[in-house]
Amino acid sequence: MITLDFSKLNGLIPAVVQDYHSGDILMLGFMNRKAWEATLASGRATFFSRTRNALWVKGQTSGNVQVVKEIRIDCDDDAVLLKVEQVGGAACHTGHRSCFYKKIENGSVKVIGKPLFDPKEVYRK
Amino acid sequence: MITLDFSKLNGLIPAVVQDYHSGDILMLGFMNRKAWEATLASGRATFFSRTRNALWVKGQTSGNVQVVKEIRIDCDDDAVLLKVEQVGGAACHTGHRSCFYKKIENGSVKVIGKPLFDPKEVYRK
């Protein structure tokens, strides 16, 4: 039986997504209980979108789904780590491989790497 | 100028801590603005403890501080990634190297690895 503690952030827990092969951190999302159960059941990373206030299967729009290879939970049962295979190569809606593409250097922000796709092409109506 | 968005979680942002050398995820903490500024100024991972409701220099009690080697922020400026050198080898208060030492396998939880120290020894009064 797996019991997570959803009480600390009003029903949400943070979920770190790590590339299964390279170990790079791809993104951080939030899960409510339904997103957690959907992730377990489907094997596809599923989050709760705070902006859309709805369940969010990562990659549903772009096709860049995350195939879950391994799941870890932390000491306090209030954080999740997903090790995934990132379909399409890029996890970020900006087209970057990782959402963490901004590095702090000498007190300012430096963009690391280039987008792998053009968001305007992927998310156009 | 570095501007983070502390508005989404009542003044807090999640901060993922990754081992600079191995790429392993060590823990996830939360930062308020003061913790973020203290991390930048001191080069030591500093969080906001939700249970103690206070600034928390990681490793202050155990000696297992985290020396910050690189800082990344994400696309939305609402999550932080710290790449650190983990002094003492273990990040978790249980003595485990990583807080994410519980793996989900076939619907149940399996502990991975063994503690590197005895918490009773480290945190005794």
Any descriptors?
11% helix, four-stranded mixed β-sheet, 125 residues, two-stranded antiparallel sheet, 8 strands, homodimer, mainly beta, 2 helices, globular
Could you explain the architecture of this structure?
Two copies of one chain form a homodimer. Chain A has 125 residues and is mostly beta strands. Chain A is built from two helices and eight strands; from the N terminus they run ββαββββββα. In chain A, strands 2-1-6-5 form a four-stranded mixed beta sheet. Chain A has a two-stranded antiparallel ribbon with strand order 3-4. In chain A, a hairpin with a 6-residue loop joins β5 and β6. Chain A is globular and about 40 Å long. The relative contact order of chain A is 0.19. The model of chain A has no long low-confidence stretch (mean pLDDT 94). At the A-B interface, β1, β2, β5 and β7 of A face β1, β2, β5 and β7 of B. β5 of chain A pairs antiparallel with β7 of chain B, so a sheet runs across the interface.
In short:
Two copies of one chain form a homodimer. The first copy, chain A, is mainly β and 125 residues long. In chain A, 11% of the residues lie in helices and 36% in strands.
Q: How does the SSE layout of this entry go?
A:
2 copies of one chain form a homodimer.
Chain A: E1 13-19, E2 25-31, H1 33-42, E3 46-49, E4 54-57, E5 66-73, E6 80-86, E7 102-105, E8 108-111, H2 119-122
Parallel strand pairs in A: 1-6
Antiparallel strand pairs in A: 1-2, 3-4, 5-6, 7-8
